[in-house]
Amino acid sequence: MTRTSTTTPVGWYRLVWPIIRRFDPETAHGIALRLLACGIMPPVGGENPASLAIRAMGLAFANPVGLAAGFDKNAVAARHLPRLGFGFGEVGGVTPRPQVGNPRPRLFRLDGDFGAINRMGFNNEGEAAVALRVRTARQPGFPLGVNLASNSDSEAPAEDFVRLVQGFAPIADYLTVDVSCPNTKNGRMFQDPVRLDDLLQRLLAARGGHRTPMLVKLASDLSEAEALAIAEVTMRHGLAGLVVANTSALRPESLTSPHKGERGGLSGRPIYGASTALLAAIRRAVGKDATLVGVGGIFSGEDAYGKIRAGANLLQLYTAMVFRGPAVVGAIKRELTALLARDGFASVADAVGDGSALT
User: In this structure, what CATH number is given to the domain that contains residue 145?
Assistant: First the structure.
């Protein structure tokens, strides 16, 4: 597959990018989050053409581009995400108890590679604080999901997930069971299919009378066989689908940044190829009815189109905003709209899993 991703800053962000990159990445992220939470960030998302509308998990999305978990861990800015043009958002990861995460520095920009490495460690304010904000942030026409994780010092990680499903199923539009974080002790234990099988049985029971859709989030560095085993368990239990994929613990030889050896999860452009290939393999295995959320290295409309034709119904991004700014979502939507029209697709749904981009 040929890929020519655009990585330049969009709009006014090109004027402030030289200043922003002088800040520690976590500090810069905190400033951006506070500006958005205060409603200061100008609306830059653009229109939502009818061709971008899609239904997935029984929910309606004005467009398929969503904010990935990790940007707004505590749901402080969730109600303002439509201003950036997103079609949905995912807050968290949230743990039952507040968690400080790993020591700083724990977030690194890979300039030149257009990637990032993080070992944040699920720093968040805990279930109670986040749930209050989720209740007030939800709004018609903008699905809001919650990414669920266990506390790193938990002696009963499965119980953590049960508690979170019980708490968030009544108030979230969908839930993501994050079993693929490389930065905490319990982050990947449920990637074992046997453990996952038991966990999902318990989580489905924990929803009670609520039919809140649930997704399982995979790592991007799984082998195809490992990923398909997890997908099989997920779909056998009747979950809505999977998020493909989380950050990677692997380091491609192509990386050039001085920070390339930092411990943590790699995100952004360097993982686009691997995560998209994994997405395509899972789509072939699970068929057309499952919801697949494509994540990893989306910087442009072309990148988004590649994920969709590989099998993604929905998309998520985060690292692209670091390098291209908040107006990147509007740019991606415009480019994606043009690509769909060029190839004769009336809607995003028509292009899902078409596969031509992978040949």
Answer: 3.20.20.70
